[in-house]
Specification:
This protein is mainly alpha-helical and about 300 residues long. The protein contains 13 helices and no strands. Pfam families: EamA.
Length: about 300
Amino acid sequence: MTATMQEPVAAVPAPPRRRVRPLWVLTALTAVAPVTWGTTYVVTTEWLPPDRPLLAATVRALPAGLLLVAAGRVLPRGAWWWKAAVLGTLNIGAFFALLFVAAYRLPGGVAAVLGAVQPLVVALLSLPLLGLPLRGRTFALGAAGVTGVALVVLTDAARLDPLGVVAGLVATGCMGTGVVLTKRWGRPVPVLAFTGWQLAAGGALLLPLALAVEGLPTTVTAGEVGGFVYLAVVNTALAYVLWLRGIGLLPADRVSFLGLLSPVVAAAAGWALLGQSLGPLQLAGVVLALGSVLLAQRGR
């Protein structure tokens, strides 16, 4: 018997390992989105034309969406045409429009409390759409978060307008549904293109509404241009890229609790920039809301 000689096989280099960011880094980057959204009220009241909320929403969404689509250089294919339209409507178009209806018909504090219900909406929708069980801990933290936001933003003069309450709840439901569906459907392309699809779809929905209801302003100051640029670039393009990336990498319930940062930052911005006061109850609400956010990031 003779031995057979085999040619040595060249070693195949292992593919480079992708760098995995720590969970707290991903959470912190995702939290940048609601933190910037908390500055929307100050920017809108101080640097944008008055009484043009739909115009502000359109300028936030459409230019940023088109820019990100161009940067991503990928268009939807197949079923993703209607999926992107659905997500763009839920996360951007319908959400922005309904949010402004609520803001105009309700005190800002009431609208913020309605928005704080989002973690509970996400928890309820995660059962049928994601197959995740309902957890008592999530509902307890969600209730604590709503209570904390209420302490921060509600005043004795708060009034309830039925149409405004319905608009605020539906807006919260739209955003919560968008979070869960984004988690269910996944992200078929890089995050820049994926964000651009949704912003462009939402902006396309808002544009005819803004033109029909408000029209275009006849004059725009340099300060207003700066406000629009901030809303489009930082408050929307950057914020939604980080937000949608976080939804894809983090559990949906953890992401939804980060939204509680928005009213807290809005109150802090009003105190720092507009001279608004923060009493003991409001400070207790800040602690309660932030505690809910932090505790929601622990566990599985």
